[in-house]
Amino acid sequence: MDIVICGCRGRMGQAVVKAANDFDDINVVAGIDIKEDLSGEYPIYSDINKIHGNFDVIIDFSNPAFLKSLLSYAAEKKIPAVICTTGFSDEQTEEIKKASKTVPILYSRNMSLGINLLVELSKIAAKILGEDFDVEIIERHHNKKIDAPSGTALMLAEEISGEMPEKPEFIYDRSKERKPRAKNEIGIHSVRAGTIAGDHDVIFAGNKEIITLSHHAESREIFAVGALRAAQHLAKVKDAGFYTMKDVIKIF
Ligand SMILES: NC(=O)c1ccc[n+]([C@@H]2O[C@H](COP(=O)([O-])OP(=O)(O)OC[C@H]3O[C@@H](n4cnc5c(N)ncnc54)[C@H](O)[C@@H]3O)[C@@H](O)[C@H]2O)c1
Known about the structure:
Elements: E1 2-6, H1 11-20, E2 27-32, E3 44-45, E4 57-60, H2 67-77, E5 81-83, H3 90-99, E6 104-107, H4 113-129, E7 134-141, H5 151-161, E8 169-171, E9 185-192, E10 199-205, E11 210-216, H6 221-237, E12 241-243, H7 245-249
Helix pairs in contact: 1-6, 2-3, 4-5
Nicotinamide-adenine-dinucleotide binds near residues 7, 62 and 65.
């Protein structure tokens, strides 16, 4: 499978190039980034339309500003795309869904196989434990992270909400009010310290029993490997459509 990586000079782009070396069936044939360089082990173009020849899948870890040209190229040439960039507006997310009507597109705010399994396991737990257990999420990240809570903690909370009998309120701060915890809420808590790559705990606390589902990320390599697995999946499915990492981990 021949792939093109958008944002190939960035932290994630480089991680994907490195991880692809461990896949016998994947070749990086070109990259896209702001600065062109045709002298390296694969050509880097500043414009996706400059790519010559055929390839199978685009993997994008760049910037929302690149989305428009990515989608028009993918739709016109019928090349499946794995979109891993985050921070899209609602309109841009709609554009992704629109393009997926003509070409296979996989989009996920978290490409880790483990996190996506954690989402599915948390949904099962929420469905079974229902209203008898309180759900709280604790996320921990390094001290350079500027947003809180993490997008992944929000993704977990949103997915769990869909399994609860009533839509819960997300509570980020308990310091403002003095009252017991309401039944229909999910507490989301952020820790920022040191160099923690990313930890997420989902706590289901019932009457004298607690279940905690945890994911511990050790490096950004996990997102790169997930993106490559997603690319393998899209190359196989062939049919246009909007795919997520749930399709890749194939639970149920
Ligand atoms: N879905 C996930 O699991 C996941 C995981 C990690 C990062 N991300 C997201 O992936 C994106 C990249 O992350 P990163 O840490 O590698 O960032 P980065 O800043 O290190 O790299 C981004 C790269 O994209 C390039 N770029 C920016 N605008 C471009 C444009 N218009 N056209 C072409 N190239 C352009 C930059 O020059 C840079 O080389 C971010 O949106 C980040 O939030 C997603």
